């Protein structure tokens, strides 16, 4: 029997607490990841990074097939029983064991397919790690279902520092090469599995018989995840085969560096949004208001920063990675140009899943992956620094398709969506003009700092004088509603001259 929907105030408070801890933990994760990855990049160099990236391509696909989408199914199901957890555990054990063994046995062939027979030992290790990674997703998903972001973040962060900093950095210093990243990944997955299970203590009795709805939803999630894997990784396969391991190392490093701020911003939001939206999946009007307000806020906070990153790509890469990574700059700029569209997709995806529209998500992901794969093949004779601009183009097309699907589901008007995005677009234009103008008469590093400072000052001035240009009706309504319980919302309402509901 389906329980009564959670009251808006109760769900809002729990989601807000979860979001607070998600962002707090994500901030620490982003800082730790940035510092450790930069040190590892300097110690290992592009070649070793490229070899590890090739192994992770196979590991990521194997994990998605092995996990079977049961983690998301456990979160999405309105009523969950111990039998459901047993059912998920049984299938994950079967699938992960099969997938891991399959990767280990086919490692020599996979290595040749990726373009280097030397990758075979790394792929054998990746196959052995697939069951650990897949099994860890069950307790982690149960924590996400309960919006227990605090302990989830602490476990993840503690495992990351242990695996990558305390173990990985010494291994890199001693010359372990690509094995450094593979070993660190395995240790991190193991800590996640043990730590999360210690919190939720779910049943350890596996069973294959159970609710077919879990399997059906999980299968749809797997299809979508595989399509997303194709979009994120098949291009890397081609980069490795067509341009070599060093080019793949640069490509992967540029992708990771560009994605870090976006992942911090939307990664935590995705986890909370999926769990919270699943609880109120029948209230389309409420979901629509929340979606527009969230998109508006994320565009204002992130899009100008992404524009600055793209305009100053050469400065950032040289400052963070050093001269050893020369040639990564145009790749980084292209990835940064695609980040605004990535943010839109990252917000839309969880809502489609919560609305049981995984199949539509799958269609978009498949089309995007095939388009990018075909584009890389068609333009393989050109330098990678030019071909990489296919990535933001495909991201744009996917984002537009997502908006169309979600707009129909939530009955959103095109004008309402444009109001939510208008502020972010204006700030992007302002940041780009400032950056290009200052770079024409200042050296690189001062120009980057001045562009960021002036962009912030002008954005605050616009918010103060013309708030309706930047803030859509849904975001204003959310600010007014949140003012009684949030000091930050009250101060922001006062700053722009907007009366809060408590007044």
Description of the structure:
The chain has helices spanning 8-67, 70-76, 82-105, 107-114, 120-145, 149-173, 179-200, 212-243, 245-279, 284-311, 313-321, 329-354, 358-378, 384-387, 390-410, 414-439, 444-465, 467-470, 473-482, 487-496. The protein is mainly α. The protein has a domain at 1-229. The longest helix has 60 residues, at 8-67. It is globular and about 65 Å long.
Percent helix, as a range, is over 70%
Q: What are the low-pLDDT stretches, counting only 5+ consecutive residues below 50?
A: 1-9
Shape type:
globular
Structural class: mainly alpha
Straight-line N-to-C gap? 41 Å
Give the count of helical stretches: 20
Helix and strand sequence: HHHHHHHHHHHHHHHHHHHH
Mean pLDDT across the residues is: 82
Taking the sheet with the most strands, its summary is:
none
Family: Belongs to the polysaccharide synthase family.
Protein name: Oligosaccharide flippase family protein
Keywords: Cell membrane, Membrane, Transmembrane, Transmembrane helix
Transmembrane segments: 20-40, 52-76, 88-110, 122-142, 154-173, 179-200, 291-310, 330-355, 362-382, 388-407, 419-438, 444-463
Overview features:
single chain; 503 residues; mainly alpha; membrane; transmembrane helix; Poly_Biosynth_Transport; cell membrane
Summarize the topology.
Elements: H1 8-67, H2 70-76, H3 82-105, H4 107-114, H5 120-145, H6 149-173, H7 179-200, H8 212-243, H9 245-279, H10 284-311, H11 313-321, H12 329-354, H13 358-378, H14 384-387, H15 390-410, H16 414-439, H17 444-465, H18 467-470, H19 473-482, H20 487-496
Helix pairs in contact: 1-3, 1-5, 1-6, 1-8, 1-9, 2-5, 2-8, 3-5, 4-5, 5-7, 6-7, 8-9, 8-13, 9-10, 9-12, 10-12, 10-16, 10-19, 11-12, 12-15, 13-15, 16-17, 19-20
